[in-house]
Amino acid sequence: MVLNRLALAGLWLALVIFAFGFAPPSDPQTLALIKALSLGQWQDINPVIIALFNLMGIWPMAYAAMLIGDRQGRKFPGWPFVAGSFFLGAFALLPYLVIWPPPTQTDSQTSNSASSKVAKFWRSPWLGRILFLLAIACALGAVLLGDWGDYWQQLQTNQFIAVMSSDFLCLTLAFPLLLAQNLHHGQGMRSSPLTPMAMVPLFGALAYLSIRRDHNVTE
User: Fold this and answer.
1) d(CA 105, CA 118)
2) pLDDT category, 215, cuts 50, 70, 90?
């Protein structure tokens, strides 16, 4: 899956170049905005921005559901990169996906013998279902209540909004590449006709996580 890794590396490089070379200037109110979004003080914030910020918390959870629990015994465990993605998004996560090695029979056996409650939590379809419902709520809030004209203006003038939006796009595009690597190496639901749904941006990925049965984690 060399092409997948090249595509992931290209996404990360494009994100870095945009963020540090072409993004709009920073806004002096950015820290106050992040604090308000984090604390749920949303009264005067565009619902589109609120939805995007919350979705940037859902995406790392979705990637954790794919990565945590099947990399035990590897030189580069996934959890530090996943943890970093809650703060840095694709900036932290994409480098790991680029170097993410294919599983071997030994790793698969180790994963089965070392199954833990933590792994079961992250790889449970119930987590995918909760994330799916939360994503729907975010999308409905943005569509029904959001000011898209204001969002478009901020996208062109506010560094935080522009970079967060680009980050969201990169995570959206990277998930099908990660899934393709999983299926290529015999994980996930290779034979299921429902697998292509994961190629649908965001909701398809979360729907996939909601219905999969991962045989690498003991029930």
Assistant:
1) 22
2) very low
How far apart, in whole angstroms, are the C-alpha atoms of residue 196 and residue 210?
Answer: 14
Q: What is the pLDDT of residues 104-149, one digit of tens each?
A: 444 444 444 345 777 788 888 999 999 999 999 999 999 999 999 9
Helix axes 203-211, 47-67, angle to 10 degrees: 40
Taking the C-alpha atoms of residue 14 and residue 170, their distance in angstroms, rounded to an integer, is 9
Torsion (CA) 136, 141, 28, 164 in degrees, nearest 10? 20
In the prediction, which pLDDT does 24 show?
95
Q: Positive or negative, the Cα torsion across 153, 158, 159, 164?
A: negative
Residue type present at position 7: A
Half-sphere exposure of 77 (CA within 13 A, CB side): 9
Given this model, what pLDDT does residue 203 score? 93
Helix, strand, or coil here: 148?
A: helix
Q: Report the 10 Å Cβ neighbour count for 182.
A: 24
Contact 95, 12 (CB under 8 A): yes
